[in-house]
Amino acid sequence: MSSFTYVAPFRFGRLTLSMLAVGTLAVLAGLLLDLGEDARVVLVAGGAALPVTLLALYLPLILGRKPGLRVDADGILFGGRPLIYARTSAFVPWPAISEIYLFRVHQGLFITTYVGVQGRDGVAPLRPSMPASVAATIWHVPTEVVLSSRPAFGWRLDKAALTAAAGYFAPSVPVVDLTEAAPMQRQLREVPPTA
Q: Beta strands 75-78 and 67-71: pairing type?
């Protein structure tokens, strides 16, 4: 493996650790506080379900050092989803990529970072990850790129390392960073129009 290869392994991020903490606190509250039987059962069962589910989904990927994203001499590997990692992983070779896009989308309380690829000659290099009607609502990124993108769930994107790896292995493929546009999009929705 070249020293320029970029690998983003699956790991516990801030969101996952926060969810684990909330679940653990709910279990402790259910066990330690003087609550009614129903509230106690809900807190303990619900609080335990969240951490156990997260550990069951992500721990095998973390311990197995599976990549969430890998950029190397051959192209880009998008790691799959938990439980069906092998079936949902997708590899795109450099000759099929004309541009790489980095963008963010507000999803309720959270901001999700995506890595998308623009195909050559209008050919989508990846199977769509969402319905076209949903992709069309992400106005600051070309729809075909949104359809050929994957979220950074369970791994952390290092924009500088990805850009360096892409520049080394495929200097003719630009990296388009639109990650600053999503906060602007949210702000525009929350600020009333001025007269």
A: antiparallel
